[in-house]
Amino acid sequence: MTVGTLAALAVLAPFAAAALGLPLGRVLSASALALSGTFLAAALGILVASFAAAAPARVWETAAVLTPTGTIPVTLGVLVDGLSGTVAVMVALVALAVQMYSVGYLRHDPRYPSYAALVSLFTAAMLTVVLAADLLVVYAGWEVMGICSYLLIGHRWERQANSAAAVKSFLMTRFGDVGFLFGIFVLGVAAGSFRISDVLAAVPELPAGTLLAATLLLVAGVVGRSAQFPLHTWLPDAMAGPAPVSALIHAATMVAAGVYVVARLFPAFEAAPVSLNVLAVLAVVSMVGAALAALTAGDLKRVLAYSTISQVSLMFAALAIGARVPAVGHLLSHAAFKALLFLCAGAVIMMVGSSLLTDLGGLREVMPVTFVTMTIGFAALAGLPPTSGFFIKDALVTAAEQAARGGPAPVGAATAVLVLGALLLTGLLTGAYVTRAWLLTFFGPPRARFQPVHPEAPPVMTLPLLALAVPALLLGFGGLNWETLRPQRDSALLSVLLAGIGVVAAYAGWRADPVRDPAVALGRLRGLFATALHTNDLYERTVARAVRRLATVVAGVDDRVVGRAVTGVGRGARRLGGVIRLTQNGNPQFYLTGLLAGVLLLAVGVVLLT
Amino acid sequence: MNLLTVLVILLPLAGCLVVLALPERVAVGFCVYVSGLTLAAAVGMVTWFDYGRADQVQLSVDLPWIPALGLRLHLGVDGISLPLVVLTALLCALCAVYLTRPAGSPDRPRALVSLLLLAQVGMTGTFLALDLLLFFMFFEVVLVPMYAVIAGWGGGPGRVAAARQFILYTLLGSGVLLTGLLVIYTSTSTLDILELTRRGGAGIGATVQVVAFLLVAGGLAVKVPVWPLHSWLPDAHTEAPTVGSVLLAGVLLKMGSYGLVRIAVPVLPAGAAEIAPVLGALGVVGIVYAALACLAQRDLKRLIAFSSVGHMGFVLLGIATLTPAGLNGALFANLAHGLITGLLFFLAGGLAQRCGDTDIAGLGGGLLGRAPRLGGLLVFAAIASLGLPGLAGFWGELLALLSAFQPAGALDRELYLGFMAVAGLGAVLTAGYLLVMLRRVAQGPVGEPVADVSAVEWVVWAPLVVLVVVAGLWPRLVLGVTDGAVRTLLGGG
Amino acid sequence: MPPEQSIDYLATGPPLVLIAGALAVLVADAFRPRSGLAAGGALTAVLVALGVEAVLAANAPLATFCVGASCSYAVDSFTVLFQVVLLLAGLVVLLLARVEIRQTRLPAGEFHFLLLAALAGALTLAAGRDLVILVVGLEVVSLPLFALVALRRYDGRSTEAGLKMFLVSVTSTAVMLFGISLVYGATGTMFLDAIGAALRRPDTPGAVAAAGMVLVLVGFGFKISAVPFHFWTPDTYQGAPVTVAAFLSVVSKAAGFAGLILVLTVAFGPLVAVWGPLVAVLAAVTMTLGNLVALRQRTVMRLLAWSSIAQAGYMLAPLGMAAGVAGTRVPELVAATVGYLAIYAAMSLGVFAVVSYAGWIGGRGGGEVDDYRGLAGSHPVTALALAFFLACLAGLPPGLAGLFAKIVVFRGVLTGGFGALAVLMVVNTVIGLYYYLAWASRLFARTGSSVHFGRMPRPVVAAVLLSGVATVLMSVLPQLVLGIAPAGG
Amino acid sequence: MHLIYPVVLAALLFSVGIYGVLARRNVILVLMSVELMLNAVNLNLVTFDVWLADVLRSGQTLALFTIVIAAAEVGLGLAIVLLVFRNRSTIAVDALRELADRDAGEVLNR
Amino acid sequence: MTGAEIVFGLLGVATLAAAVLVVTTRHLVRAALWLVVALGALAGCFLVLTAELVAWVQVLIYVGAVVVLLLFGIVLTRAPIGRSSDVDSRNRWAALVVALSTAGALVTVVVSGFRDAYTDLGTPAGSASTMRAGIFRYWVLPFEALSVLLLAALVGAIVLTRVDIGQRGPGGGDA
């Protein structure tokens, strides 16, 4: 069995689980189906990745024509190399953890079967995005992820807010996807093939304009899917979905898929620096803005959601300055710690029944496992040593610093300086919001009434927490193999220092009054940040309202103009008939006059014409 | 095996007459039997079709009929028509089965069955005909039975008006179509579509081609329907009984787009090159317009009906590119729309039967809780309709967009890029209204439970679901058949 | 003195048979009134005449009453087709008449005599090849019809209808005769082919001939109810006995077309550039006006009248294209008109057949359209037949015959390259469908109280069957009536 | 003789007949006017026949036939007129308007 | 101007004048009498044109039969014998316009067509014997058709005027 086949099987295993689970989830054991499918994917992924790791320079590619199209055919196949292998393993493992966790988390939910199947389907789709060799197939996976995200966000669709959030998330991402698809068209048509390897091989020959257009369009898709500014407002709302879904889709995998795609097609982006500059600016705005929002958000999951936006921006910023390896490294480490954080948040929610920070507090004793693992996650998020986050952030700062100093980077030094500044500022803010959330969740007096249960969660839930805590803590050491991932003294000190300032500031604010939210200190700015500078309102007021109004107008026009034009013609014909029939007045002399006058006219006409 | 080609027309025709002599109570059963046999014959055609020569007409029958008109009874299938013939047989059979529901047995079944079978004759014949006038004849056969089905078995108080508007409007279209076909005939002296395709416009002057194309496309546009000639459609679909809506959306609209692919584009290439941008523009306007109109619809059936306008807009855009990819996409979208919208109308009919109405607000929401399987199917159908990859709706849209990105050489590329962009936006809006609809119908607070999917409904709907998935996952099933034929049609293009 | 003209009894057989039959019927009825002898005799005469047609068809072409190369009476495929159509139509009308005569107490002997006389005139019209016989033939068709229309003597409406038709007819005849006199003055002959030859000569006064031609057309325009010669039609149809209206709508109209085609193509062929556009305009106006006013009709007989006006417009349309095509292709156009006419005859008679019986439900001949509501509930077969014939008239499948007729006419129009008229026809077809549909849909309306009338009498059933079979036959084999035009055009 | 005299006379006579047909109320007067029109026809026919020296005598023959036709028309016409008079007690042309295109509800305006 | 032209002119003026009186007089009976004058004058015209047979038939049938019939009609419909005010319809002005236009058009056409045509009245063209030859050698068919026409007219007239079966039918009617 070749590596390609194994990789294909890795995709097919969760797909099969979904295909069986969706119609038959109530008959078969849904959890067994989902777990086995995901497990198989993980195992095969590890196998494939190990092959890839053993031969870092090698690329395995298989392809068969999926269908003729009349122009460039669509091929079905996998592309395995170090990048895709590693990311695939990450995806499969996080999915496995989440599936396992979900068994416990949703054990009383009658809709668990469809839920599990959808998560499996999502896993398959994400693996497709990672492993597919054809850009259009990537797009297919990309879209399927979207719909799974939609369905899972709307898992509790009884509440209008949840279904609204689901719709919003789908539409905003799909808006970006249109650009993504067109970007694929531009690349594929220019290269004469939609196969990634062909496209990349063709990049040196492609005209700059084509590459620019293609990459800009791809950026649009990526921005939507990864919830970057200006298409970021869906992600906080998407927290309406169950916590494990947030962990998998809205933290670890789908949201980061954009990073993967840019990394995958990096040669094309490198050849179009303008796009990278755009990406960098968007990332900087998202990074800082989301961090500010996280600082003030009142809901634990929303804090995490904003932090996700912010962290994914870090990856994009890294890509923009050419630091591909740190970007992918952050992708992996972020997947680990952010999934962990969300799962922990899920455990908290299960215990307290709420994720509002004002309802939490003092959970340290009640939920020891969660406390420990979540602390690790938070530390990694804040980039504190020795967690994985520390290594990665250090690498990012180093890369930015080098680029700012004029090192080899696809974007100019000015952009690099901007990125560096943003990185440092974000480090500070991250330290602050992490500390705030941590303190408000686990310390101080309990603020909501709930019945503490023991154990805090069934082992099927705590096990994934512990499992994810390990890479969150230790993954950084695995990256020491790579030159770019080794910590540099100056930058390490700087970033830890900044994070520490953030932590201390937050702590100080909390210490003053443990019951009060330290973010209150921000005063008026708090409301502004919490709403992400009113971007959501802005969209609601402009785009959504405009579309709705336009829809009403169109419906009215259709009814009154287009439809009535048709009926009006009919009515007009009837009326005309009514006028003409007046000539049929019954008077034979009138008839004769008509006849003779008609003849006369005809005769005169004919004589004049001859 | 050319007998099969005749059988798929003759069986329903015979059934349509014979059923009138049978007692009322066996009529529906008889219909299932006849349409089942027809489906079997269609499957036979699929079996005996030589896929290696999909670009050539097979299983053909060619007999002289009316020499005074130059009309020949020339029937046959190639890669373009085969899928549609099967689709027709399938949907008709499913409709027949649907009528057997104990809860929804129709009033005056004998007449209804007879009309449906007659409509089937016309629909199948349209896809099989290889003679311009024969095509037109079958095209017309559908009108009266469809009118009668809407007017006689429709649900609402506006059914007679809707039926009348349908038949008058489409007759106007077919009159224009006839004029166009005869313009072709008067300048070529042949009615044979294959011969005309072979000539590829040779012998017809450029101006005549433009005029003829305008007439033919204009006539077919009413049936497709192309914006702004669509106003018959929402009313007709809304008022028609479920089987009527299914056949209208599932098959009838395809007759228009099929005609464009089969006649207008290959026979009048110069005219097509001249007018295609207009078609494309109308197509994309239709996509956006329909999506916006759908956002404001309050009735489920009306919404689905408007969505047809949008989907057919993609079909039109594909055709307007005059490329193999575009035509492939159009044909695929045709098929997909037939399956998906057929399913949607079945579901809407099921809802109407359960809740008494298809008013979205009146349905009460929470369907996923009140009848989980029914709700699940609705979600599935809506998602398929919005063009999710992996389901049938995707490939048609994809190819339409892709072909608009690289339209035929003679066309203005910048313009088509604009079309593509607008169509892409339209796709977002399409998703928008479908999801909003799901939000209001399938989701939300759960009210009183309603009967979930019954056995008969499963029998009818399951094949559609399966085909939507299969066609989505394995598009080669269709595109592999159409591709060669489409290339031949465009002159080896 | 040279010998008198001899008579070719075979060629003139059909009208002679009818005349003989008419006389026999008159005599028989005088001696044995109300015995059914009249009806039987008339039917026999028509059947015998049809038999003669069969012989004629085998022996055509024939010509008789010749002076030099020109003949007054010719039998070719055109004549045979027309005569067969006329005779079959006459047969249907006779079958229908049996019931109506009984129901409305019409004098049977005179009725049949007049009908046969008119029919004989119509046959002569299709065979005549000079202006004298054409005008006399036209009068032979018209005069008995005045009497027939007014035959419900107790009914003021019937009388009024007769008078209206009479006045318009005699005026038209006078105008036509004046036209003939001008044509005669301009060309010096009455024979159609000789007129054609004379018109090709340069010294013929063109303006006089053209004016004469227009006036000659009036007589035929009256017969075929073309606008503006149509005014009498609706009133007359409404007042006349239904069977007589059927005769007017089919036989009289067909005879008018036969004469019109002969005059236009054979005599005035050289003036095609003049009459082509004229006829085209007449066609356009006729179909549009007819259809538009038909939209507003509720009375069945008036509806049928306006529809027959509109249909005349369609039939004229191909003729109107003659100026646009090469002279050798004019017969194609004529054939289109002839084909449409033949098909129209069958389907229109079908409607009249059903209406003649079912229409009595409303009290007056034909009734109101609303009287037919729910007919399908009580008389499904009758309703189906009527719906079928209406579909034919609308030109929609399952009425394939009507569809073919429309196709033929459209093709004719497009052969002439006159797209605007074709588009106008499209619009008219739609309007036409509207009112046919309005009627047909009422048949199938679900009502509590649907009409009931007794079993259809056998002659009516036979008439419906006859028209039905003819229509179905032309749905399957329309070539029977397509592609036939007069020789010498 | 110059041909203009008879043909112009015929044309004028015909026009006078037309005026009568269109202007007279009494059906019998209308019939008389029709006779004038037919006589104009006859004058034309005879004139042309003589002018052409037609060996077939077409014109004069048709003139004779026209006279016969006129007689037949008048005969039948009078029968109808009498019938009208019997049914309606008037023979004013413009009073015979029961058959006309109007909706059932409309008042007959006699 | 030849003598024939003068005679014809006078007769023509008489014909036309009588014809105008026919269509304008307010006396029904006088209209019939003026018709006789017009027809008679026209018969004179025919004689000038050497169409003897036509002239005599004109006098016999028209003056002898048709006008008598019309007079019968006047009597039977109980028309006022004297001057009556409503012999003309409201259509008079339209009639005048149509008639004048017709006259203008026809005169223009025939004058343009026969401006230079002269007829030779030297050889009598319409004696009874030559006419008989014409009719029976060349126009047998219309002649025979005409007999049918007459018979039909006769039967029609009789059946319409017979009063013996004038009852109402079941279909009703307004009598």
3D architecture notes:
The complex is a heteropentamer of chains A (610), B (493), C (489), D (110) and E (175). In chain A, strand 2 (64-67) and strand 3 form a beta hairpin. Chain A is built from 23 helices and 4 strands. By secondary structure, chain A is an all-alpha fold. The model of chain A has no long low-confidence stretch (mean pLDDT 86). Chain B is mainly alpha-helical. Chain B has helices at residues 2-18, 24-48, 82-98, 109-128, 132-141, 143-153, 159-188, 193-199, 206-223, 232-239, 242-267, 269-295, 300-320, 324-355, 360-363, 367-370, 372-385, 393-405, 413-441, 455-473, 476-489; strands at 58-66, 71-77. In chain C, 73% of the residues lie in helices and 2% in strands. Chain C has 18 helices and 2 strands.
Overall SS class of chain B: mainly alpha
With strands numbered from the N-terminus, the spatial order across the biggest sheet of chain A is 1-4
Q: Would you identify the regions of chain A where 5 or more consecutive residues have pLDDT less than 50?
A: none
| Number of helical regions of chain B | 21
Low-confidence stretches of chain B: none
Number of strands of chain B: 2
Quaternary class? heteropentamer
Give helix % range of chain A: over 70%
What Rg of chain A do the Cα atoms give? 30 Å
Q: Kindly report the average pLDDT value of chain A.
A: 86
| Biggest sheet statistics of chain A | 2 strands, antiparallel
* H-E order of chain A: HHEEEEHHHHHHHHHHHHHHHHHHHHH
Helix content of chain B: over 70%
Beta percentage of chain B is under 5%
Count every helix of chain A, treating DSSP H or I runs of 4 or more residues as helices: 23
Q: Assign an overall shape of chain A.
A: globular
Largest interface: D-E, 74 and 93 residues
Tally the beta strands of chain A. Answer: 4
